[in-house]
Amino acid sequence: MRARDIMTTDPITVPPETPLEAVAALMADRGISGLPVVDEEGRLVGLVTDGDLMRRLSAKEDKPASFFATLLGATADQAMAYARAHGRRVRDVMSTNLATVTEDATVEEVAHILETKRIRRVPVLRDGVLVGVVSRADLLRAVMQPLGSGAEQEASDPRIRREILARMRAEPWISTRFVFPMVKDGVVSFHGFLSAQETKTALRVLAEGVPGVKKVVFDTSPAPKMMIGMP
């Protein structure tokens, strides 16, 4: 699944010259916490969030730089802080160092950006032009979609077993030489040698992620000590 499949298209945007009072009113009226900032050609130039507006208020409480800090060159930071605290338009408070993705970005890549950057949304660009936004809510809907569509897929036991085996072979923490699944009426039972409870938990999660699985049980034995490389 790609960003294009889950993004919000035609998001509400504002130009850099928009007064902050209008932005605050728009956010409150629409129940949104961030707005992309675009130029006349639709190119993304920034992002203004409720956090930017809050920082504008808190910046007014910042103490002036000390005499020694001024000598050491802190005046540029102080000047920027003043502009953010007293600015009246979006261009004065918006964030410009943005993380963005293209329409072809996978949902895993988008999720990684949101998590590592600790942000709530990421703009989607096509040749620099904003075409959508992916939010955490969009990602959650994407995560839930397979759960809702699983009943519509073929739920045959052979298909379930094939998919579980394929997923197991793709993981480094489990080996199908020692553990194998059997499926009957959607109930998955694992057999073989398995010692670690953590591996059982991971296998259960793996199997439950396959559409059509109703239940997961284990009929495994602890691994003999002479066996090496056991999960």
Automatic annotation (TrEMBL):
The keyword Membrane does not apply. The keyword Translocase does not apply. Keywords: CBS domain. Residues 7-66, 94-149 form the CBS domain. It comes from the Bacteria. Pfam families: BON (PF04972), CBS (PF00571). CDD domains: CBS_pair_BON_assoc. SMART domains: CBS. PROSITE patterns: CBS. PANTHER family: CBS DOMAIN-CONTAINING PROTEIN CBSX3, MITOCHONDRIAL (PTHR43080), REGULATORY PROTEIN (PTHR43080:SF26). This is CBS domain-containing protein. It comes from Neoroseomonas alkaliterrae.
